[in-house]
Amino acid sequence: MTIVFSGGNNRSPNDTRILSVDINRVRNIQDEVKLSGRDLATIPEYVRRNIHLRILDLSNNSLGRAEDVVSELCDLKNLTRLNLSVNELKNIPLDFTSFPFLEVLCLAGNELEYLPEGITSLHRLKRLHCDFNHLGSLPLDWSSLVSLTSLTLSNNRLDQLPTTVWTLQCLEVLNLQRNRISVIGPLPEGAASRLKELRLSWNRLSGTLDLSPLVNISILDVSHNDLEDLEISKLYKLESLDVRQNALKALNLEGSRLRTLQADGNGLEIITCKQVPLYLEKLDISHNNFEYLPEWITEAKSLHTILADHNHLSHVPTEIFSCCNLMDLRLNHNFLVKLPDFLTQCHMKSLSLQYNKFEKLPYNFFWHCHGKLLFFTILMKNF
């Protein structure tokens, strides 16, 4: 592209210059407007009339203070990204079927009680963010959102999820945490076959939750519910699992790719893994009912943190103390009566042993640990 400049204060009327200009820079000036955090209560005229706009960010303003202001965007048919987050909006008087090119829509942090008309008909929509609203229900049919990869609906008032959401074959991220959902499923075979991240924490789930069909899940958070049984033993791609604060007594995992397991605050007595979790780095099983540590724990050589306090442990495998990567071991508030006689290969930086039933410590315990342990807690009440 070339732009021809004629005349100018220091040029004769016949002086012309041809300059080469990056067409992408010119296009960006015309296609993208960012007006976040300007305390706007109205939409500037140059925005409303710019029918070439593709990216518009109006987040963190006050557009909800005046009625139907957002309806002035109706002529911007070429939008691909629209951000209306944090605007005190109680409703959005737009028919989104008029925005056929929309790929990203952000409506988070408003006061919406229902989704605007036409959103679930957007074939090109890839990301929909509606967190922190007052949504109590959702449209029933989501099957037309064939391109949707990320759906975030956290911090709303939802008590159920339409079954058609599980038919979205491009969906990779689903965030439903901090709602009022009490039941999920049963899920059909092939449900959300590309789903990698599922967050269901702080809901009202109870009883049994079977997530077996979600075979590609790598991040799963079902913490702070009241689940008694969780069927995830076929999820072989699972890397991060959070089941804190439930009512689980047993947990069966595939384990081969697991890196983080947070399971504190249950009634767990056993955790089984079909494959030794060789990549597991952090294990939190505190505040449970374990009498013995899981059998596979001595083979999980990548572990750097084991939190096993507040259980019923009376014995700990000797191999734990010589694990070369283990930095933090918490065994306080258990029923331990002795430690291994040798700790010469101890690499830990932090060891918590208070409130157990030790009769004595191994000979030269402090000599072997000198210069290694940075934090060591043990009360004379043990003895």
TrEMBL record:
UniProt keyword terms in alphabetical order: Leucine-rich repeat, Repeat
Domain of life (superkingdom): Eukaryota
GO CC annotation terms, alphabetical: cytoplasm
A Pfam short name: LRR_6
Signal peptide limits: none
Name of the protein in its database record: Protein phosphatase PHLPP-like protein
Organism: Trichonephila clavata
Higher taxonomy: Eukaryota, Metazoa, Ecdysozoa, Arthropoda, Chelicerata
